[in-house]
Amino acid sequence: MRITGAKRWFVVALCALMAGIMVYVPFLRYSYYDQMCVLFTQYKQVVPADSVNGFIGDFGMAFGIVSMLGYPFGGIFADRFSEKWLLIAGGILMGVCSFWFGIVPGKTAVIIIHLLYGVGTSFLIWSAYLKLTRKMGNAREQGRMFSTSEFVRGIFGMLIGFAGVAFLGKAVLPSGELEPAALGVQWRNLMFISGGLFFLFALLVLLFIPARVTGAEERGDEPQEAFSLGNVIRVLKLPGTWMISALVFCCFSFTSAGNGYLGAYTVNVLGISETTASTFAIIRNYIIAAAMTFAIGFISDKIGSKAKTLGIYLAVASVLCAALIFTKSAFILCLVISFAFAIVYSGMRGIYFATLNEVGIPLSMTGIATGIISMLCYLPDVYFAKLAGTWLDAYGNKGYDAIWFWAIGCGILGIVTAVITYRYSRKLQRNQEQKEQ
Fold it and tell me: Which range (37-41, 103-107, 364-368, 418-422) has the least confidence?
């Protein structure tokens, strides 16, 4: 069945809402890191206080491992099965896990929850969401379909993020400290609402999205290649696959550092309250991210190359990251730099996969290529939370400096990769122009 008219935009918005809650719940540590430390050590003795950062890294790593392995298979599932039923299955699974997480179970259970979050995200929802969104528009409409989807995700993330701040803020005592028992109650409320939203969106998908959806265009300029080992090898042999994987890896490394630890940095190093830090985190991770991922598309068009644009952004992000280290004694200046840093690193994800055409990856291999690249470039999801947690447990506030130095190192590597990628893309363009003459 082909979806037309205003219903197309309803489907885009509905898929974006489900994707929005999908990327919010597994990454609660990005917005409520310090509250989670109290939750796991004082509300319930899930882990000792001296290892709580490592524990948060453990379940972050569990989610990252499953997600990394699941991206290629999620693309295969989206080609083989109905997007509708994948979205419903993912929504139900993640809804159940959210209710489970709300009661703050034991250490092993929290790890299992995040393993299942990884299944729901990468195997079930992510590729189905992308494919269904793509089907709603023709080739000329892809930009507005995905930018609208990104905007809806950002606005919804902002709303539920601020709702979380309001809930958890009720646990703050007049002294500014968190009251563990009240925090546990409000955490349960937040997670139960999140679980309910998963069920609600799954129900709306069941009611309003057909089992078989025909794309706005009956066929593309090139047929999509069926999954096969031979095509995987062909994609792996393309230099562009490795260039984009390395480039996006370096960009995403800044996101892992900034989204994951700027909030805790402002609390423990700059001395602001947990509630204020969470409010700032919502602004950075959702409002700024929504605006900047939309804007970078126009900026890259002006620059003329997505790879060159990412290289420039990496250079600016590296400078700002270094400034965080050297201005931490100047409260206002460091806080301003933290928001400037967020503007840069959050914008980069808006054109991650817009670089494929520049490095000669055929349209017919987009599915396989994006699956392989996602598996490689999102590797920081696997190890970085654990690595950063280990630094913080071992070195205290000095661990944040290690986090920023690690990001700067990735930035320097990324700039070199961006230069190589840009020169390679220019070479391909010249070769193509010679063939056409």
Answer: 364-368
Left if phi > 0, otherwise alpha if psi is -120 to 50, otherwise beta: which for 231?
alpha
Q: How many whole angstroms separate alpha carbon 352 and alpha carbon 75?
A: 17
> What six digits make up the tokens of 114?
């995040």
**Cβ atoms of residues 262 and 277 within 8 Å:** no
Average pLDDT, the chain: 86
Distance between CA atoms of residues 7 and 180, nearest Å: 45
**Angle of CA points 331, 349, 384, to nearest 5°:** 65
Q: Is residue 62 packed enough to be buried (19+ CB in 10 Å), middle (13-18) or exposed (0-12)?
A: buried
In angstroms, the CA 23 to CA 376 distance is 19
* C-alpha to C-alpha distances, 124 to 27, 90, 156, 322, nearest whole angstrom: 18, 5, 21, 39
Higher pLDDT, 56 or 259: 56
* Range among 9-13, 165-169, 192-196, 306-310 rated most confident: 192-196
Q: How confident is the model at residue 222 (pLDDT cuts 50, 70, 90)?
A: very low
User: Interior CA angle at 141 toward 133 and 360, to 5°?
Assistant: 85
Scan for tokens 């396989």, then name that residue. 368
Report how far residue 104's alpha carbon sits from residue 191's, in angstroms, rounded to the nearest whole number. 10
Spell 300-335 as b/e; 16+ CB within 10 A means b. beeeebbbbbbbbbbbbbbebbbbbeebbeeeeebe
* Pair 57, 388: CB distance under 8 Å: yes
pLDDT band at 134 (very low <50, low <70, confident <90, very high): confident
The dihedral through the CA atoms of 131, 137, 139, 140 has a sign that is negative
- Residues 6+ positions from 205 with CB-CB distance below 8 Å: 14, 18, 84, 87, 88, 91
Tell me the backbone φ, ψ of residue 387, rounded to 5 degrees: -65, -50
Any idea what the Cα angle at residue 157 is, between residues 152 and 163, rounded to 5°?
130
Say how far apart CA 437 and CA 435 lie, in whole Å: 6
Judge contact between 301 and 354, C-beta under 8 A.
no
* % residues pLDDT > 70 (the chain): 92
Q: What is the pTM of this model?
A: 0.74
Domains and CATH numbers, the chain: 1-213 (1.20.1250.20), 227-437 (1.20.1250.20)
